[in-house]
Amino acid sequence: MALTKLFSARRSCTTCPYCGVGCGVAATRESSPATGEEVIRIQGDTQHPANFGKLCVKGSSLADTLGDQGRLLTPQLHGEECDWDTAMEFAASRLRATIDEHGPDSVAFYLSGQLLTEDYYVANKLMKGFIGTANVDTNSRLCMSSAVAAYKRAFGADAVPCNYDDLDEAELVVLIGSNAAWTHPILFQRMQAAKAKLVVIDPRGSVTTEMADLHLAITPGSDAALFNGLLHYLTESGALDQRFIDNHTENFADTLYAAAEWTPEKVAKYCSVDLEQLLEFYALYSRTEKTVSFYSQGVNQSSTGTDKNNTIINCHLATGRIGKPGCGPFSITGQPNAMGGREVGGLANMLAAHMDFTEDNIDRVGRFWSAAKMAQGPGLKAVELFDAVESGQIKAVWIMATNPAVSMPNARRVAAALKQCPTVIVSDCVGDTDTARCADLLLPATTWGEKTGTVTNSERRISRQKSFLPKPGAARHDWEIVCDVARRLGFGEAFAFESPADIFREHAALSGFENNREQARRAFDISALANISDQEYDFLTPVQWPVNGAHPQGTPRLFGDGDFYTPSGRARFIAVQPQCPKQETRDEYPLILNSGRLRDQWHTMTRTGRARKLLDHSEAPELHVHPQEASKFGIEDAQLVRVASEKGQFFGRARITASQKPGQLFAPIHWSDSLAHNATVSALAIPFTDPVSGQPELKQVAVKLEPLIAHSYACLLLRTKAAEELHSRLQAGDSQLFETILHWYRVPVEGGYRFELALKKQPDWQAVAEKLFNLSGKQLNRKQLQLPSGERWLLHSEHMELLVFTSAAWQTLPDRKTLESALQQPLPDAPATLLHDVPAGAQMVCTCLQVSRKEIEAAIAEGAASVDELSELLGCGTNCGSCKPEISALLNTDLAVTVG
Ligand SMILES: Nc1nc2c(c(=O)[nH]1)N[C@H]1C(S)=C(S)[C@@H](COP(=O)(O)OP(=O)(O)OC[C@H]3O[C@@H](n4cnc5c(=O)[nH]c(N)nc54)[C@H](O)[C@@H]3O)O[C@H]1N2
Ligand SMILES: Nc1nc2c(c(=O)[nH]1)N[C@H]1C(S)=C(S)[C@@H](COP(=O)(O)OP(=O)(O)OC[C@H]3O[C@@H](n4cnc5c(=O)[nH]c(N)nc54)[C@H](O)[C@@H]3O)O[C@H]1N2
Ligand code: SF4
Ligand SMILES: [Mo]
């Protein structure tokens, strides 16, 4: 995408805005040889220790997600554009009035692991030190809070012991509830290169499990039993490190006692895995000293996620496999700055800089901040927070850099609660999101490429994000917006920051403030950075905390000395009684719905959804179903289906695949009401939460399934203006349209949008065209074609503002890429040609080089026998390599699993 108003240095080293791997990115301004315009070229930063120059498909497509289209460029008050002064006065006066009338606990902030540390720090400081409430929570509650709680229980601190080198050095990597091949691709590539044995624990098959030496497809939610059983086995097989247990831990006996009943036989039955395979895993773990457990949402997003995390940690403590190269319990973070949020105290139960709400800490932080009004205890956690919005206890909420109307469990109720909340402020870089539609005040924020600050990745490494683009429109940085409101609330002195560097220095100073054994020893200490100059901040080399007097160059690994942050200095074993998911299947809801990520999309698609090529891998909401279930419910591949729980419904296209187990379904989390009809998967989850961490159970939802029978299908190509008109009608639930439309989703294309519709009946297209697009009947041409598969017809306007293709079967509509070309160059005979075109359905495996699954399968049939051979032949996998695991899975025809 061409960008003309560029101003900064030619090459800028920054960090990827997506996953918690935290890859270094080099953004370079270049002039395009074709047009002479300046363009941004994105490459991996070869100097960055997270990725050494590599980027996955999302990172390497970053340039395609830039540009002003769809951006929120001016503040909007009640749907009308306004200036910043009006916007800020509204925000401050509403907050002030609410606090005056109902007290500080009637206001809340809901933040995000995608904010930079500096943004996060000022928001947390404003609420907890000056407004006087701890009602500040974050989407990390849905993501990492069980991992945080488990680390704190075990180590006395939220401190990740390991680093990425441990993945290189490990001889065994156990992935638990992680689809790393898709969600942490660059780390997965590192694991593959290191050739450690790979065991994957996941109820469903995925590209990650395809690459595993052993895949244990356990019953959903049964992980704690598996690891209790492992602890028991380690004891029986003499694999304990008794010295470590005696000298550096506590509570071992009780924990072992709780695990003792979990014999391999009992575990195999409980987890429904093959006993021999289970024993193979246990034996492998038992004999492999260099073991890393790498875990993520499959264990975190559970009503007993903290316990599950602790059962994993228990096994590392029992074998002393912690604090040594190639070892450790490695909770991998999802968002680019989930860690930074944890450091500043972005979670409602933390105060700041790894201090929680003890009297001493409240006093300590209060003195450091010269706080006007310190919060006196923990605030509401995400689910409680939105419940309080619903009940009216919270009367003003400010949401920054997250989309809770899509990502929270029982999402529709969250949206409804927001709609009736007296004051909702939303800061986002994009204007059209499900959450933005609930806002009274919309604030345009800068985003990646424009903003400046720091992020911390999964291995505690702090890196710089740097701006290389100007602020678009009237957008402002999140920290600037917060500080402006703070000043208007009368706290100017405490928020007189002039730059992110200023904020960072204060944050670093607080981390070291009275941080010692006598006062309050904390793991998070970056005091060595408290006095860095602006220039040093700008050129900060990525560094792992603690960074203090004792470790001025940072600390790659923690706990090597067996000294922990608990009062006794010993790590704690936690005795766990495994529990089933709270959302239990029953007659009416007999299936378990699992949800997660796709390879090429990021969350609610506000960024990745703008890059056309990232939709080639998967462009529509989908549902993965086992063949047995499909035949039971009368579902064919690619058919539209409805999944419903007692809370909501989800529509998607069935993908029949043996990678799913019978009784289980899987849906991607990425689509929302902004992009499709009934495609918000979190709307189905009942918000049961973990009692320790407050993290909701998102991975196991009891549901029912049924086919949706469409009368016919239509594919519409519209230029931007007409597309926006249709989109707003669809979103407003236009009853006339919905008399004929069963389901829709939208795909951005060059020059406009493509809408895919499943129809209840054919609408009167001429009337629709006239009403929506101001095209009179005369301007529309109609062409008809009788094919063996049925009648197919096309309606188009003279200048191709509108092209409609309809057919009885979705699969027989023409190839979409060819159709899309008609919007770019309206050829006089295009429509007729298009009607005859090849059918759709070629899924791209290699997004970068545009190599489809069909091409790869054909080459395999011709004799290509390795990924390398296919790469040489077709080019697939030669850019970012994110698709290599999938190519490898296609080569393994025995498995014949449809992945993704
Ligand atoms: N491409 C892409 N990458 C991303 C993101 C993205 O949006 N897109 N988001 C980032 C974020 S914020 C996060 S948090 C991470 C998440 O990274 P992951 O946790 O790897 O991703 P998910 O797809 O949510 O879920 C992982 C796996 O958990 C499995 N699972 C479900 N139930 C259970 C269970 O009971 N036990 C076990 N053992 N496994 C289970 C699912 O089948 C799924 O394969 O990804 C990050 N990376
Ligand atoms: N069913 C189910 N639900 C889930 C999950 C699941 O696996 N299953 N996973 C959960 C997890 S782990 C996560 S992390 C969440 C993610 O869910 P969300 O956080 O709700 O999703 P995002 O799309 O990442 O929302 C980020 C928003 O911030 C905006 N944004 C981007 N950059 C900036 C910026 O610099 N400033 C501001 N102000 N805004 C910005 C984006 O446009 C976008 O609207 O979903 C959770 N929900
Ligand atoms: S693995 Fe991909 S998404 Fe994650 S930080 Fe690296 S380039 Fe970005
Ligand atoms: Mo996440």
From TrEMBL:
SUPFAM superfamilies in UniProt: ADC-like (SSF50692), Formate dehydrogenase/DMSO reductase, domains 1-3 (SSF53706)
Keywords of this entry: 4Fe-4S, Iron, Iron-sulfur, Metal-binding, Molybdenum, Nitrate assimilation, Oxidoreductase
Cofactor: Mo-bis(molybdopterin guanine dinucleotide); [4Fe-4S] cluster
InterPro entries in the cross-refs: Asp_de-COase-like_dom_sf, BFD-like_2Fe2S-bd_dom, BFD-like_2Fe2S-bd_dom_sf, CT_Nitrate-R-NapA-like, MoPterin_dinucl-bd_dom, Mopterin_OxRdtase, Mopterin_OxRdtase_4Fe-4S_dom, Mopterin_OxRdtase_prok_CS
Organism superkingdom: Bacteria
Xref: Pfam families: Fer2_BFD, Molybdop_Fe4S4, Molybdopterin, Molydop_binding
SMART domains documented for this protein: Molybdop_Fe4S4
The 4Fe-4S Mo/W bis-MGD-type domain, residue ranges: 9-70
Keyword Iron among record annotations: yes
Family: Belongs to the prokaryotic molybdopterin-containing oxidoreductase family. NasA/NapA/NarB subfamily.
Protein name: Nitrate reductase
The organism of origin for this protein: Microbulbifer salipaludis
